[in-house]
Design a protein that fits this description.
The protein has helices at about 1-15, 15-30, 45-55, 90-95, 135-150, 190-195; strands at about 65-70, 75, 80, 85, 150-155, 180-185. It is of the alpha+beta class. The chain has a single domain (about 1-60, about 90-195), classed as Cytochrome P450 (Cytochrome p450, Orthogonal Bundle), CATH 1.10.630. β2 (about 75) and β3 (about 80) form a beta hairpin. The longest helix has 18 residues, at about 135-150. It is elongated, with a radius of gyration of 19 Å. Bound molecules: protoporphyrin IX containing FE. Its cofactor is heme.
Length: about 200
Amino acid sequence: TSTTTEWAMSLLLNHPAALRKAQAEIDAAVGTSRLVTADDVPRLAYLQCIVSETLRLYPAAPMLLPHQSSADCKVGGYNVPSGTMLMVNAYAIHRDPAVWERPLEFVPERFEDGKAEGRFMIPFGMGRRRCPGETLALRTIGMVLATLVQCFDWERVDGAEVDMTEGGGLTIPKVVPLEAVCRPRPAMRDVLQSL
Ligand code: HEM
């Protein structure tokens, strides 16, 4: 959850227009006289698009978790004997140019108005062993992002692009942890001071 939030904020810092659009959406839906709440998050359609696009580009478990075939089976024409360890490359599936236009670019709009419906995305796996923490994770990421975007103006350190190098392994950490400059938004000062 924290890794995905860090990728999302990194992407927003490198795409200030998307950050402004998310802030405008929250201002219109929630205003600046109170903090965004968990009940608001489902109504923040663009914010959800940002989370989806982040999970498409940087799925926290890029190879899902290892599975093992419980019986001999055939997958995509390959014979898979019982007891074989199987890895699913969700990272490659999410960046497949046959499925996604401009697959390497951050374009949250591709998820707007159900446009991406039917496209195959599996950041939480699928089937019986699908991630049971999905709802909690999506709610947490949505709430944290919405609060950070509503309460603060964000800038890159010295204006330099945020480094997006990906670390290897079972998860997909940022090699260079995100550093950013945040300032309380003047319109939110009263709300923040009353906390
Ligand atoms: C962005 C956040 C998260 C992502 C991307 C994610 C992704 C995944 C993936 C890909 C799997 C493997 C699914 C498969 O075997 O095909 C998994 C399994 C699992 N996840 Fe998550 N997860 C996230 C957050 C969480 C949270 C917050 C919790 C718990 C509070 C959680 C609990 C679990 C558990 C217990 C399993 C094992 C399920 C099983 O094998 O039956 N996950 N997750």
